[in-house]
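Friendly challenge for the regulars: who can give me the structure tokens for this chain first? No prize, just bragging rights.
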Amino acid sequence: MVQLAARAIQHGYNIFVYNNIRTNQVVYSLTRAMNNNDSLRQLPYLGKKTVPAALRKDLWLPLATISFPSSSQGLTAFRKLREYRKLHETAYPLELITQTEGKNKGTLLGKKKRGKKLMDQKANSVADIAAVLKQQEEAPRQVEEDVGNRRPRPRSRSRKGGSPPAGKNDGPQTQVEAQDTDGTEGVKIRWSNILDAQFAETWPASVIHDNLTKDRYAAAAPMVSMVTVEPPADVPKAEAAETVPGP
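First reply, four minutes later:
Bragging rights claimed.
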């Protein structure tokens, strides 16, 4: 029960990034241990032997662990990172798979070389992480500007003299938007090799970078705080308070 509660509490607070040391393919995971089926769904078919039948733990090693202050912020970043990676592998420019030298200059690469070129997503993934965090950094300011420029909708009297129902642009909706667009304050990235952060041109100033201490083939356990759950007064003393990890 304690483990299930810990997983539910930590869901979305951490994104675990894994990298294939041979092909530089990248997989994002919301759990510390890679799930074989979920991870294979992220790998598009780019040619023969580009999608393995099963994941090998000796080839997939942790690249980074991204920790967020809120679950909604982490889930939003997870969705955007997968979308960006999908675009890199399916909507690429022709210049990327065109030979730039030799007698066949200007022609497309062969299927095997093309597959290796498109599987190498390590640098793109690091740049995508920086771009997503940059968007989250600018999101609160955009919400404030939208709220400031938003004009209140004129209220019209109903036939019975009552007040009309609240619309989508009223106060409660504005509060929800402001809560879902947190900045990058409290975001921390732990790198297996901190020099990989240089693949991105710029990073938000509030993002903290640190080294990742990995446990063999799995990423290091995220830093969690302990929350003590006190039993109600009517519960016998034999059932002691249970301690579960917090976010």
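The chain has six helices and seven strands. The two ends are 16 Å apart (CA to CA). Your move, everyone else.
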